[in-house]
Amino acid sequence: MKQSVTMVDVDGTGCPASTKTSDLCSKSLAINGINGHVEAMEREEGKNEKGIRSPEEREAMLTGDVKPLQSRVYCTRFLILIVFSLYSMVNAFQWIQYSIISNIFSTFYQVSYEQIDWLSVVYMLVYVPLIFPAAWLLDKKGLRIVALLGSGLNCIGAWLKIASVRRDLFGVTMFAQTVCSIAQIFILGLPSRVASVWFGPREVSTACASAVLGNQLGVAFGFLLPPILVPNTPDDLDLMANNISILFYGTAAIATLLFILVVAVFKDRPPLPPSQSQAVLLDNPDEYSYKQSIVNLFKSVPFVLLLLSYGILTGSYYSVGTLLNQMIIAHFEGQELNAGRIGLTLVVSGMVGSILSGFWVDRTKTYKQTTLAVYIISFIAMLVFTFTLDLGHIEVVFVTAGVLGFFMTGYLPLGFEFGVEITYPESEGTSSGLLNASAQLFGIVFTLAQGKLKADYNTFTGNIFLCSWIFVGIILTGNWLFLPFNLNV
Fold first, then answer.
1. What is the pLDDT of residues 47-100, one digit of tens each?
2. DSSP label at 239?
3. Which DSSP letter does residue 41 get?
């Protein structure tokens, strides 16, 4: 049964991706529960040659008699986007900076690999219980408070790490990393909010993608720079401590500068909203129930299957990234620098995969088929990566890691977009938060389990463990083909 209402989307067209029929766009529209009627006009009364109104006209036509609300975009938006992307990048850098040289930190702090793994796992662990309180705080207090918390905690954690550069202070570095992981909670949920509050309808998607790109670049630099700045010098621990201090001081200095910039430039919102839809939301704030939305989502079988399959593949990606150094040096001794470069290859190819997969589904709308295909290829790529580690040719590992990253990371935007499709009209913020929480939970389990299997047996056993779970994810994903597409069907 066709619905008589639709939502104004971020690009201002008035047609969300989940709308299946074009006739909805000329009927009635609702913006977060604010209903308005758009009269069907004749083409000669203002439509263009093709009989289609421009996004600005559609956005302005909230009612037949009411004048459009005042809106404007400000140049400050670019500065806010750049500052946010940079401190998001530093936070992501701090997540992976230990794991990519885990053998060096294990030697320096005299702890096991499993303990070093927890420096990555803690980022996933704190996300799950804190994501929804953080989302509530963003709704109630606005962008500036949340940005100050994220950048401030990121800065504090970076300076605490400097105090931990002593062989008996692993507990201090663990505490510092926990502070940084809490900062992450106030960062990951901001890209879409920054984009919608500050950017016009034709800029929102690009702004959001740019904000997310900052986090991915942080992971890329986290793979690349620590092996360069902290080479393995087990015979000279004083030199190792000095190199670690340089890494930590550099990170803290940049984090401090960015915190100062956040204090100086970040605001909750511009004086005038950037779009008509934002103007309406300001005049008519909507009361939204997170609890009811979560209940509705868990009643949807397709979404629960997506929740599990998304968590499995994304959790596998987190586990591979965390344990990559240990995998590489187990087969190629003394290749810490190349381990970082392989991680960089994994991330950069994944960024390309994310862009191309998003472009493909935007054009074809083949969410189910594309998601299943990418999942299957990711499984094959993980198998190939596992078996090529034993060949003794590190250049082959570069290629297989690139292919693995392209498809495994390329799945991430597919999962989010598909989640929005099958849960409409529920809030995309709630569905995205649950998908992220699922990924963190599976990431914790997979990282700890794979690390244990690698320590007790070998790298091959740990990777096969991941492959088996990815195969389970393929089965769950395949079931979508036989289930209703929309939450309301």
1. 444 444 444 445 444 444 455 566 666 678 889 989 999 999 999 999 999 999
2. H
3. -
Query: What whole-number distance in Å separates Cα of residue 137 and Cα of residue 147?
Result: 11
Cβ 157 vs Cβ 183: under 8 Å: yes
pLDDT tens, position by position, 112-153: 999 999 999 999 999 888 887 887 888 788 889 999 999 999
What does the DSSP assignment read for 347-403? HHHHHHHHHHHHHHHHHH--HHHHHHHHHHHHHHHHHHHHHHGGGS-HHHHHHHHHH
How far is Cα 211 from Cα 381, in angstroms, rounded to an integer? Answer: 28
Residue 28 pairs with which residues in a beta bridge? 37
C-alpha distance from residue 290 to each of 286, 295, 433, 441 (Å): 12, 9, 11, 20
For the range 130-137, what are the long-range contacts, defined as Cβ-Cβ under 8 Å and sequence gap of 24 or more? 130/182, 130/185, 131/185, 131/189, 131/433, 131/436, 131/437, 132/290, 132/433, 134/185, 134/186, 134/189, 135/189, 135/290, 135/429, 135/433, 136/290, 137/186
* pLDDT tens by residue, 300-349: 888 888 889 999 999 999 999 999 999 999 889 888 899 999 999 999 99
Smallest Cα–Cα separation from 371: which of 320, 431, 422?
A: 422
pLDDT tens column, 421-475: 777 666 666 777 788 889 899 999 999 999 999 888 999 999 999 999 999 999 9
DSSP 7: B
Cα–Cα nearest to 443, from 180, 134, 183, 120: 120
